[in-house]
Amino acid sequence: MxxxxxxxxxFGKMRAVNRVSFQxxxxxxxxxxxxxxxxxxxxxxxISGHIMPDEGEIIFMERNITRFPPHKRIKMGIAxxxxxxxxFPELTVLDNVRNCVFSIRGLIGQFFKPxxxxxxxxxxxxxxxxxxxxxxxxxxxxxxxxEGDKKVLDIAMAYALESRLLLLDEPTxxxxxxxxxxxxxxxxxxxxxxxxxxxxxxxxxxxxFDYTDRVLVLREGTIMADxxxxxxxxxxxxxxxxxxxxx
Amino acid sequence: xxxxxxxxxxxxxxxxxTSLGLTIILGVMGILNLAHxxxxxxxxxxxxxTIGLLATGPPSTALILAIICSMALxxxxxxxxxxxxxxxxxxxxxxxxxxxxxxxxxxxxxxxxLVWGGEARYASAPFDSMGRANLxxxxxxxYFVFVMALTALAGAAVWVVxxxxxxxxxxxxxxMDRDMAEAMGIPIKRLSSLAxxxxxxxxxxxxxxxxxxxxxxxxIGMEPLIMAFIVVVIGGMGSLKGAVVGSLLVGQAxxxxxxxxxxxxxxxxxxxxxxxxxxxxxxxxxxx
Amino acid sequence: xxxxxxxxxxVKWTGAGALGVATGATFSSRAYGATKKEVPKGPIxxxxxxxxxxxxxxxxxxxxxNTFKMMADIYNQQGGILxxxxxxxxxxxxxxxxxxxxxxxKLIMEDKVDVILGYISSGDCKAVLPLSDELGALxxxxxxxxxxxxxxxxxxxxxxxxxxxxxxxxxxxxxxIGLALMIKKYLPNVKKIAGINPDYAWxxxxxxxxxxxxxxxxxxxxVAVTLWPALGATDYTAHITTLMNSGADIVHSxxxxxxxxxxxxxxxxxxxxxxxxxxxSRGEPYPQELGADFxxxxxxxxxxxxxxxxxxxxxxxxxxxxxxxxxxxxxxxxTYPCYHAYQAFAVYKAAVEKAASLVGGWPTPEEIAAAMKGxxxxxxxxxxxxxxxxxxxxxxxxxxxxxxxxYPFPILDPKRMEVFPAxxxxxxxxxxxxxxxxxxxx
Amino acid sequence: xxxxxxxxxxTGALVLLIIGFVLLPQVIPSYQLVLLESGLCFxxxxxxxxxxxxxxxxxxxxxxxxxxxxxxxxxxxxRYAPELYRMEVLIPAAIVFxxxxxxxxxxxxxxxxxxxxxxxxxxxxxxxxxTLVKLYYVTGGSDGIRVGIPxxxxxxxxxxxxxxxxxxxxxxxxxxxxxxxxxxxxxxxRSPFGKAIQAVRDNEIRAExxxxxxxxxxxxxxxxxxxxxxxAGGLWSFVNGHVTPExxxxxxxGEVVYMTLLGGFKSFAGPIVGAIVFxxxxxxxxxxxxxxxxxxxxxxIGIVLLLPxxxxxxxxxxxxxxxxxxxxRS
Lengths: 247, 288, 442, 330
Known about the structure:
The structure holds four protein chains of four kinds.
Chain A: E1 2-11, E2 14-24, E3 29-33, H1 40-48, E4 55-60, E5 63-64, H2 70-76, E6 78-80, H3 93-104, H4 119-131, H5 147-160, E7 165-169, H6 177-190, E8 197-201, H7 205-211, E9 214-219, E10 222-227, H8 229-234, H9 236-243
Parallel strand pairs in A: 3-8, 3-9, 6-7, 7-8
Antiparallel strand pairs in A: 1-2, 1-4, 4-5, 9-10
Chain C: H1 2-14, H2 21-32, E1 44-50, H3 57-77, E2 86-92, H4 96-110, E3 115-118, H5 122-128, H6 131-135, E4 138-141, E5 165-167, H7 173-186, E6 192-196, H8 201-217, E7 222-227, H9 237-246, E8 250-253, H10 257-270, H11 272-275, E9 277-280, H12 286-290, E10 299-301, H13 317-330, H14 336-359, H15 365-372, E11 376-379, E12 382-386, E13 392-393, E14 396-402, E15 411-412, E16 418-420, H16 422-425, H17 433-438
Parallel strand pairs in C: 1-2, 1-3, 3-4, 4-5, 6-7, 6-8, 8-9, 9-10
Antiparallel strand pairs in C: 10-14, 11-12, 12-13, 14-15, 14-16
Chain D: H1 2-27, H2 30-56, H3 64-80, H4 87-109, H5 114-134, H6 136-139, E1 145-146, H7 162-190, H8 192-202, H9 204-209, H10 214-240, E2 242-243, H11 250-263, H12 270-288, H13 292-306, H14 310-325
Antiparallel strand pairs in D: 1-2
């Protein structure tokens, strides 16, 4: 479903992503690991279209989307969340999610009927909130949410875009360990394996092991390993990179 | 031809002095001070008044004293403005900042009226008494030469302050990154006042220098404000180099505009400004 | 009552019916309480609008306003108009055309003044005079010059343009035609002219009339350059240089107020007067303003025959009285705005008294207007005639500046002073000034 | 159910308000009524302006340009195409003309935000101002253009004086437009589009990442805002009877910002209240004293420093205080 070839991104002299190539198939849940500054977030930004690559290409559903603007990619089914949660602080939780639904339904440009009068969209938004256990907060402003709930809302917004490829940038960072798994459970439940895939940037190895089928290890902008988590984690070089021990 | 360039320089001198203050304040405090023109007017009225008082004595001394008084007064008023109005809203959204300086503008216009009355104030003795210089076969009023020289001097002084003194370097630091500067423990409050006073006194100087050639009137500050605004937009917000280049450019553009496109003397300047804004919203020497 | 009527009117309109004239009557009665056939007790409310602040205050607004006050005082000493005391209020003309429209609307609709005597700027006149008929109130423009103010689109045009709008003086035609005739007489071999005029109605029209007249009198004359500084400009250096390089023999200028002073000072400083000669279409006040600095041998027009030395005091005592009275009160010689203010006030007074003698009792604005049309009175500067087009007709005085013993400023050289009679400098009613000039046989 | 009750209350209040406005001409003197009409025109302008400031997060300091565009559309048609000088042509013309201008200027402006946006809008409006002043033979320069009373649907107001026109038909005509504009804006800011531009205001990056085309949506908002200003300008030109370049000058644009903050830009009704209050405040300051700028300036500074929520904001606070003191009522 996603094919990345020789992707390159430079920031000035510093090369953040260096000739990265990999694939993701339907139903896969892939984790992306690596030390800080390895280029994980940059990779997510490149695939989501937040920034444009200097070289290489990105193919999604057999189409070359390397130069597509974000809104086109989203239409095609690439959605993302943000490592540092990005919400709409002056809109209610419901509207935060509803905007996404309007957007993906191509209704976002409608300017005559109040949002509340779009029952179908609203109920869909509520359903998503329920799925992510936020339904009781729909009237609140993001500011009044707990860190964990903010995180979940951020993910729920990405999910609401009815994506086929979900790019999750550290969905559980900054969340109490007890909640981490609750969040992952909901996410994984939400992913319909028959036609969806996900790429999750993650630090927590337990999550990598428990919830993802494949892991990509990134170092200094290049992929140093790609495979089943348990096996990959055996490789001393990887352990050295990730935990700075062995080798 | 040479005369056009001279006129351009002469006009540019005023542009430079007024835009200097505007750009420093914009750079250091991120505020577009709409009341800046009123400071110019204040300087003009103060100078006209002083020269009027000293009408009996020699015009040159009257002029010098007038300049000193105007700069002192505008600096003081600048200080008051900064402390009373700008400081409280420095962290507030843009609309409040622009509006409060707008309020200050309205306020000062009427204060000037209250103090000096509504009639035009002429004080042309210094200009009349100086006569014409003979530069490379061209007749040109000494006074205009004097204005250009003094402006160059003032510009140099400001440059020295900004480049060489500790205060200047700290000001530049604030302009670059206010929060960082604050974190570094730079006394922002005091320096903001200093920047404001410096800018204000420059506007005052410009006003004082204008008065001998043209009467002090109500609303006299409007045109200088707009002109300085154009300069800042062209030169780049908060950039001294920008102020210099901008005022030279606008000065010449106007001088030759009047000479050869008399129908467009005003719009052409805005056209230049807009074109530059479209290409580089931060201006020629401004930072993004 | 009026309210109910208006409601009916509204209902009628929504019924897409036509509006009755009745509402018109009720309106004027409601808004103005114009009383019928007996003289009301209360004072006459007169609004005088002149520049009291800004560049035009010192040379125009203040002298004009002084004269209004002086005349109100004098008339009141004589028992007012038809026994009614005059209550004169002065207003500032500053703020531009839009501000003046708002002010005039307030004066008429809320303060319900009997008449507005005012306006120095042509821009303000053009904006305000139409309100006379729109709001049904008498407005007399006293100093502005725009000749298009009361002229139509093309000749012949229907007049009067406004039933209740007047100008108690001649328009700028006389100044600029006067200058042209003067140049023809004294400087017959002018080859090249230039112009520097303020960029609005007054400046544009002054130049147009002057240009048309010059081209008529000097076939094939060359126009070097025309400059249009904004009103209230502070720096004329670029303009002056352009004029000095233009090689023009004569530079026409209708700059006025502070602008004229500023320009002239900077021009003296830059040596313009060594290179060319200025022709000021309204120069009369500036020799007094600038004093001895004002260069000699420049052409000056007096917006009529308004000059503190003309008409000669022995031949025309009214001018002697006026000059002395004004000088006594304000310790300055009257400039032409003073004469214009006198004219407006005197014309209104005469018209009211004439109308009253015809209808008996206090006349309505319409009746006063009818009486004002065709009125002819004596003024300190000679005879003034308000023609059928509601515009004044005057002779015009043009001269050259000259330094003379006994005056701290150059006066008009008595030996080279010309008065062109009204019929030589005013177009007849119904003909546009430009077309009239074109029709001359030279 | 409580929601429904308040809703009914609200609609009730609204209906009363409209009835009040309809009956107003019977009670207040004609001069005040004309002033009010000016205020209503500025209210429409304020609504449009606030669509940018409040809902899109963009401070335009050159909104006078679009107001002027509408007013001059009327003036120019009167001057160059008298045969088209009919209300049913003029108002649409005003809207379209200003919308086009806003479309062009907006295309440039929406590429920037914050002070850059403000300065760019300011410069553009001053360009319009300078052009209007300089093209004397086309636009009448600083003298501006007269605006006569146009026929409406073939009905010419023959021999009618402007005050009658303004107190009679035109007041209700204007009121109609105000109601329509308010209603449309009310719907707009609650529509998906409205929520979208608020999203853009709140978080540009995220907005882009949920598929909102940030610049385009800003541009649309700019367009609508400009069209509102144009409509206001067109309607106002008949009230004033005279249009001048001053309308495009930044000082007028500054007054628009002032009105909006005076009323309170955080609330939907703010600009409307602000515009009407400002109109009366200014005129009575101007005619009451020659030091009107002092009054306007001090009120302005006072509002900014002491009442950042504006009049409406302050009122809301008062009401809440009252509620707090009398809990049984709410």
